[in-house]
Amino acid sequence: MIGVLIFPDFQLLDASGPISVFEIAGRYAKDATPIRVLSATPGPVRSSSGAELLARKFGPSNAITTLVVAGGDGVEEAARNQCTLGFVRAIAARGARVASVC
Hints:
Blueprint: E1 2-5, H1 12-29, E2 35-39, E3 43-46, E4 52-57, E5 66-69, H2 75-79, H3 82-93, E6 97-100
Parallel strand pairs: 1-2, 1-5, 2-4, 5-6
Antiparallel strand pairs: 3-4
């Protein structure tokens, strides 16, 4: 599973770009990997442009093979969120890919 981590005031392109890339790659490979938008708080998450994405709450990290962390104006506050930090650290500790846009 591919996780895309977002937070309040994330940059919309930093989430939607990777989502589109993985979606198109899965179409060509005919073996689409599920993509989940994730956040410390589930539900609609407002981007810096005002558009929202619907996110799921962090769950067990063992299903995620790649985690893409969006950038944006809210990144500093997100980096201080202990729930978010713990989730990213757990994924990194087991050797899954962790990447960021920006």
